[in-house]
Amino acid sequence: MANLLVTGGAGFIGGNFVHYWADNHPSDAMIVLDSLTYAGNASTIAGVEQAELVVGDIRDTALVEELLRDRSIDTVVHFAAESHVDRSITGPDAFIETNILGTNSLLKATRTVWLDEGNGKPHRFHHISTDEVYGSLDPEDPAFSETTPYQPNSPYSASKASSDHLVRAYHHTFGLEVTTSNCSNNYGPYQYPEKLIPLFLLNALHGRDLPIYGDGMNVRDWLHVEDHCRGIEACLLKGKPGETYNIGGGAELPNSAVIDNICMHVDLAFASFPGLAARFPDAPAAVGEPTAELKTFVTDRLGHDRRYAIDERKARAELNYMPLHTFDNGLALTLQWYLDNEDWWRPLIES
């Protein structure tokens, strides 16, 4: 039996991980530490009996130390982060505070309790990062590997790169048992509707514009969040301390193709389930019009990276990781989840 501290566990990826871990490791206990900012939602993990929510800030080192001692925590899974690039451009300070200082606070607390006060019991600090720390690729460049030099281009990715370096340093300097995973673009249930896929799904349902940055040809690798959770599980159970693993979805697509797929799936849903027209009368699909008519092009984002791609051969070889979801399958499941869980997302878009 393991005792986990899951930071940011009421957010999108963290919340999905809490559900995944509870389903697959029912004897383990989880403390979820989340400050419940705009992207944290207690309802995301409601009903998960193994998870206890503690509302608090990862920068509160004393609180983290107390939780580590009192709950005999042996595993920290660190999701808590500011993650929206647009927000990092307009307000970078919050990203420095949470992603850098917050990670440093967690590392200090785990070092104190596990190493300085510890009894030699095995422990693991797993840090979730992003492929954005590697910068931007040209069309013919090889995909990001674990040895790709860091070249972050936004305040968000720069803050995540800094936190990655801190985690690595605590391993090499102090002997903290850490692993890091750098993931590609996640999508799936419980994602806050500021990110591309949920934003465009909900805009399509309400007949709102689908704003496409630039020419729509920025390329990303898309990873269903359940596959990401499986990758994190593999890092925890099989990963070697001090190592980094890239976790990808094997679906490298330009934004324009992702948006076309969203439009297609929305149109198919309305054609298959006539009752949707009454629920979402403002959607073009409610009157038989194509969702694609909502597409509009807007000024590109500042410093918009052109292409990300993940080389996940190390994770496949050392962790036996493979994504199970195709993008088409994962997107269909995601749309269905949002259609079935209006009570979760409706308050978010009306607040």
TrEMBL record:
Keyword Lyase carried by entry: yes
Catalysed reactions, semicolon-separated: dTDP-alpha-D-glucose = dTDP-4-dehydro-6-deoxy-alpha-D-glucose + H2O
Native organism: Aurantiacibacter zhengii
Enzyme's top EC category: lyase
Protein name in UniProt: dTDP-glucose 4,6-dehydratase
UniProt superkingdom: Bacteria
Needed cofactors: NAD(+)
GO terms, biological process: nucleotide-sugar metabolic process
EC number: 4.2.1.46
Keywords from the named record: Lyase, NAD
Residue ranges that the Swiss-Prot or TrEMBL entry lists as coiled coil: none
NAD(P)-binding domain sequence ranges: 5-332
